[in-house]
Amino acid sequence: MSTVHVSNHPLIRHKVTMMRDAKTEPKKFRELIREVAILLAYEATADLELKEITVTTPLAQAKGYDLQEIIGLVPVLRAGLGMVEGFWEMMPSAEVWHIGLYRDHKTLEPIQYYNRLPVAPTVDVCLILDPMLATGGSATATAQILKDWGAKHIKYIGIIAAPEGIRRLQEAHPDVEIYLAAIDEHLNENAYIVPGLGDAGDRQFGTG
Ligand code: PRP
Ligand code: URA
To answer: Would you call 148 a catalytic residue per the annotation?
Structure first.
């Protein structure tokens, strides 16, 4: 079974609290999601492989490191878009591959509407970015899309998860490690996370 890493970093906890607040406007919400993404990027990439390199300082040669692996950032449209900038700032050589999914209102199952992945995988590690892990349908489907593409190493990075979503993702993809800012209590009758933060897409894009 995959490990679930839940950050207890004070900065993340404070920023997620502000994201939850219904009074937080879209502009501030977008700033917060970017900042939380930067902090989660730090935690979720702690085991990336390095290769040794040498650089020349103004004084001498110094041994140093470069990232060994090619990283693919995979935001799930729409809400995952807000996490890209923060991750990309921390790892500017990463490739970004978008997957578009929305939840069918009746079945709550994800419907794919965008996927332009090339025929063969071009990256070594895929980081799925999606702030909300509710039923787990979207995360599970995205991991499957990436595996069908040929991805070997996949991590899921979210902000708030429900226990139901974590279970579903772990059962379907026990090899996908999960990084989160918070685990909430439960899903309501419309499969929204409670207390959660509402609709993460609407709150970023002002469409609620
Ligand atoms: C949200 C969220 C996830 C999904 C999580 O997207 O960004 O992708 O719901 O729910 P699940 O775990 O039950 O699948 P949504 O379908 O609302 O689309 P949007 O981002 O375009 O608003
Ligand atoms: N998607 C969201 O944006 N929020 C939820 O609580 C559940 C799914």
So the answer is: no
